[in-house]
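Technical appendix A lists one of the benchmark inputs used to test multi-chain prediction within the project. The record comprises two sequence entries:
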Amino acid sequence: MCGIAGIIHRGKSTNVGGEMQKMLQSLKHRGPDSTGYALYGSGKNKDYILRFKVGENVGEGSSAVMEDASIYDIRKIEVNKKIEEAGGKIIKEEQITPYSFRYLIKCDDDLLDLAKKIETVEMTEILSLGKSLELVKDLGDASVVADQYSLNNFKGTHGIGHTRMATESGVDIRSAHPYWAYPFSDVSVVHNGQLTNYWNNRRALERKGMRFMSSCDSELIAVYLANKIRDGKKLEDSMKSSLVDLDGVFTYLVATEDKLGMAKDHMAAKPMVLYESDELVALASEEVAIRSLLPHEIDTYDPYEGEVKVWQA
Amino acid sequence: MASITKNEHKSYGMGLHDEVLTGRTQQTFFNPEEGENFFYNDAFDVDFNKRTSIDVKKLECLELNKKIKELMKKGYGTIVLKNPGAKHSLGVGILQKLNLIIEGSLGYFGVGSIDGPVVRISGRVGWSCAENMMSGKVVIEKNAGSCFGAAIRGGDLICKGSVGARSGIDMKGGTIIIGGDAGAFTGFMMQRGRIIICGDVGPNLGDSLYDGTIFVGGNIKSLGADAVEAEMTDLDISWLKRKLKVAEIDKKIDFKKMTKIVSGKKLWNYDNLEPSERKGAI
């Protein structure tokens, strides 16, 4: 089933981490397996924020293979070497969990070479790389993940998130949402639905050199959009063409450093409720998520089939 | 194709079935001698002047629905729900007359499987509002989500705002009235009843429509398979005027310019089947 939610404030920063936690927690019943956040911090950093993992959460309910935790340190050292090899410089290192890290790095704006090198290290996956995006995902509900990664006081302008019920692939971090649109700075995607022409599109994109880290159909949307952006298309146009090229039933949210967008397939088979005011836009699979932030009476509506909308922070 | 005449059944004398339905020949009619079979065993004798309210803020849907039943048992005929907070499955399974006033919005499956109550909702409703409704009246002041009135069998379901996709999917009777616009696949696989859309409607209107009638005041993006335009009659116009008045929709509509959509009946051959085959098809 899965639940998705997003919020964007127009022209101001708030505790977007806490807001997303509330919204996603109220969607827990739609997806208890894992929760993910893509949060956009206040102001653009000079340096890149790199979020990556070198292993999987092998806790209860995980379908990942158990590993000795000592391997994580070895992989981290390897990653550090790869960053240096790519001409990057590590400004700050933080270890959030035994397998998950947050770095501040200086590097060129061409992120492909750096990303490729880092991901040559075994079991290593870049969760996000950008100047305002911080992408966090792990097993458990929204509160568990927010506490684990200290997201409850994250200041920012906007964010998207996902509660996952695993259907197409395993219960692990690599199959959890959001997905970063590798290798483009600050682009992330969450999705609720099912793509029925996944393999055709995946093979076509792989032939163009695009990388897939999971067999989750939702990753295809991020990769698809990344490919369109690489070809010079604007975000909104890329989203519109996705409604033609991607088959199935889906509603997805996409965020960039200063925008939040949504797209709904032509069957309108997956839910989305939207609230818009002069101050903010909040949207979610169910209105209860919006009500967790705005308990007073508000006017909401369902976007229609084939609709694409984009809002500016 | 046989049409039903006024002399064929007692129910006409009671004011029922006074409108000619298209297409169907095998209708089951209400027999007044079997009236006692039309009451639910656990229906309560309620007084509509006896009024109370429930604060839903800290209640789960199951607790709330039980509480409504307890209050009906005590004879309350008017119940006000405060702070519904877009929670799911509120006010479901009410199988008797009751005035239910909901001050706020409902989530999914609100007031589903009801038979008899009059419900007024001041906010919005989520997906599948009034699913399987059998009789009564539901009025929503704001917008509604998708699958509005899915599989309803009777009653009046009114949304003064706009609705999502697949309104009236699989509906088997009753009337759905939409004051604003409607999304794709409205009336999808509809089998009987009527839908009125005052505004515009999305693609594939009345797709695989088996029977029933859809009236549209605005633009139609496209018709679905086997949905065809039919001629508006004076009877249609007088019925529409009466229905919209009852629904309290005061939008200015040129009834003569409304579009009437019915089944083209190219896809179905149900009525040509033998009774045994018909049973199998069901």
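Chain A touches chain B at residues 266-269, 271, 273, 286-288, 290-291, 295, 297, 299-302, 304-305 (CB under 8 Å). Helices of chain A lie at 16-25, 70-85, 111-118, 142-148, 198-207, 217-230, 235-245, 287-291. Comparable benchmark entries are summarised in Table A2.
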